[in-house]
Specification:
Length: about 475
C-alpha cells in the first residue's frame, strides 16, 4: 500500500497535467484561423532566380485547438510559389493543428519564369485554408522582372546600354581604355553581392529628370520589418574610375547601396575645365564608406545629393574641384558616423601626402552641409585654396577669407524623417535655404534641379517643392 499510494498520486497528477494540455479540437465553423496579413506582397523579384523568403503568421484565437484540413496554393501561378508550413515544405498540406491561443509561421518563396517583358509583370496566387468547412485565403503578389545577366563582362568596344530590361551584373563590369560605355536614359544596372564597375575608359551615364539611370544592388524587398534593402549599404562594391580615365559624366544617375560609393583616381593632370568626372543632378547615397572619394583627380558637381555614408560623404585628396548647388546630408542609420561630411586631404604642407602633386583646390558654392556628425575635416582653411561661398552649415561660425557669405547654424528644414526611413532632402516652404542662393556665382550646369525645375534661388540640390506642397 505504501508503494501504491505514491503511484496513485502520480497518475492523478499526470492526468491533471494532460487535461491542462489537451484542450480538444473545435468543429464549429465560427472558429477560424486569423492571419497577420491578408495579402503578402513579395515585391520585385528577378525571374529565374530564387526569391528571398517572406512570411506571415497564422493565429488560433479560439479556446480550443483547430485542425486546418487543407492548406493549398491555388491559381494559374500557384506552381511559381512554394510554402513552408510550421517547418514542413511543400505546396499543399493536410490536417495542420494549431493549439488554443497558439500560432504557426508560414514561409513563402518563389521562382518566377521569364515573362518576355522589359517591364515588371504582376504575378498573383492564393493560399486556401479550409477549416471546419469554411475557406479563407491569403493572397500572394509579386512582380517578375526579366534581366540581362552579365558575368565578368569586359566592354572592349563602344557600347550603349538601353532602358529595356535591367542589366544584372555579376563579378564585374569593366570598361576598357579608349572605350566609351553609354548608359541611355532609364537604364537600370543591378549589381550582385560584391560586384563592381571599373572604368578604365569613359562612362557616359545620361539619365534625365524623367528617366534616371539606376545603379543599385540586386536584392529586393525588406531586410526586416519596414527596412528595405534599398536603404542598406554594402550591397555591392561601387564604381571605380582609374587614373587616366576622364571625360566621365554621371547625369541624373541614382547610385546607392554600395560599399565604396564612387571612387575617382587621377594623376593630377585633370582640371575643372577638363574634369575626370562631371556629376549633374545625381544622387550618390547609402555607402558603407564615403559616397564620393577622389584622389588627385578633378570633379565638377552641380545639383547633386551626397547622402548617407558610414565614414562621411565626400573625400577630396588633392586635385581641383567645383561643387555648386549640392546637398551634403548624412543621416546614416546603421553605424555611428565615422567621419566628417566633407573631408580634405593633401590640402597644404601640413598634411602633404608626399605624392609631389598639386595641393587641393576646391570651390564650393550654394551648397548645404547639414546632418549628423561634423561637417568639415578642417575648420581652419587658411593657407589653402579651398573656399566655401554662400553655403549653409550646421555649425555656428563666422565668415572669413575662405568662408564667404555663409549661413551659420541654421536648420535647412528637410523633409527627411530618419526614424521613419524617409530621406527626402527637398526643402520645406519656410526653409532658410529657400531664396538664399547667390546665382551670380553658380555654374551654368545648375540651371535646373534634379526634378527639372528651373532655379529660383534655393541653396542645395533641390528647388522642387516637397510632398506637402505637392499635395
Amino acid at each position: 500500500m505504501k508503494f501504491l499510494k505514491p503511484l496513485f498520486f502520480f497518475f492523478i497528477f499526470a492526468a491533471a497535467l494532460c487535461s491542462c494540455i489537451e484542450d480538444g479540437f473545435t468543429t464549429s465553423p465560427s472558429d477560424q484561423p486569423a492571419f497577420s496579413a491578408d495579402t503578402l506582397n513579395m515585391g520585385l523579384l528577378l525571374t529565374t532566380e530564387g526569391s528571398p523568403t517572406a512570411k506571415f503568421i497564422v493565429y488560433n484565437r479560439a479556446s480550443k485547438g483547430i485542425s486546418i484540413s487543407d492548406i493549398q496554393l491555388e491559381g494559374e501561378n500557384a506552381p511559381m510559389f512554394r510554402l513552408n508550413v510550421d517547418g514542413q515544405s511543400g505546396r499543399d498540406f493536410h490536417n495542420v493543428e494549431i493549439r488554443a491561443k497558439d500560432s504557426i509561421f508560414v514561409m513563402v518563396d518563389a521562382l518566377l519564369p521569364e515573362n518576355g517583358s522589359d517591364l515588371p509583370v504582376d504575378v498573383a496566387a492564393k493560399i486556401r485554408f479550409s477549416t471546419n468547412g469554411v475557406d479563407s485565403h491569403v493572397v500572394l503578389t509579386a512582380q517578375g522582372q526579366d534581366v540581362t545577366r552579365l558575368r565578368g563582362s569586359i566592354i572592349d568596344r563602344d557600347t550603349r546600354f538601353t532602358a529595356g530590361k535591367p542589366y544584372q551584373i555579376f563579378d564585374s563590369l569593366v570598361v576598357s581604355p579608349g572605350i566609351t560605355l553609354t548608359l541611355e536614359p532609364g537604364t537600370r544596372l543591378y549589381f550582385h553581392d560584391k560586384a563592381y564597375m571599373r572604368v578604365d575608359g569613359t562612362l557616359h551615364s545620361l539619365g534625365t529628370a524623367d528617366a534616371h539611370v539606376d545603379m543599385t544592388g540586386d536584392r529586393t524587398g525588406n531586410v526586416v520589418g519596414q527596412i528595405s534593402f534599398d536603404i542598406m549599404s554594402r550591397q555591392w562594391g561601387g564604381v571605380f574610375f582609374s587614373s587616366g580615365s576622364k571625360g566621365n559624366i554621371m547625369a541624373h544617375t541614382d547610385q546607392r547601396n554600395t560599399t565604396y560609393g564612387v571612387n575617382v583616381n587621377g594623376d593630377g593632370s585633370t582640371t575643372t575645365e577638363d574634369p575626370a568626372l562631371t556629376l549633374l543632378n545625381s544622387r550618390l547615397h547609402n555607402s558603407g564608406d564615403v559616397v564620393l572619394y577622389s584622389s588627385h583627380a578633378s570633379i565638377v558637381a552641380a545639383g547633386t545629393e551626397f547622402a548617407e555614408g558610414s565614414y562621411g560623404l565626400v573625400s577630396l585628396i588633392g586635385g581641383s574641384h567645383r561643387f555648386d548647388h549640392c546637398t551634403m546630408a548624412n543621416n546614416y542609420l546603421f553605424t555611428a558616423i565615422g567621419g566628417p561630411a566633407l573631408q580634405f586631404g593633401h590640402i597644404n604642407a601640413e598634411n602633404d601626402d608626399e605624392s609631389g602633386l598639386p595641393y587641393l583646390k576646391a570651390d564650393i558654392t550654394n551648397t548645404i552641409i547639414y546632418g549628423l556628425g561634423s561637417e568639415l575635416s578642417h575648420g581652419d582653411l587658411n593657407d589653402t585654396e579651398v573656399y566655401l561661398r554662400r553655403c549653409l552649415l550646421r555649425s555656428e561660425g563666422e565668415d572669413d577669407e575662405h568662408f564667404v557669405a555663409c549661413i551659420w547654424g541654421e536648420d535647412p528644414l528637410y523633409y527627411t524623417v530618419r526614424t521613419d526611413y524617409l530621406f527626402d532632402y527637398r526643402l520645406k516652404a519656410d526653409s532658410p535655404a529657400r531664396g538664399a542662393a547667390d546665382e551670380s556665382i553658380a555654374l551654368p550646369q545648375s540651371a535646373v534641379d534634379p526634378y527639372g525645375i528651373p532655379r529660383a534661388g534655393a541653396l542645395g540640390a533641390y528647388e522642387a517643392a516637397g510632398p506637402e506642397e505637392e499635395e
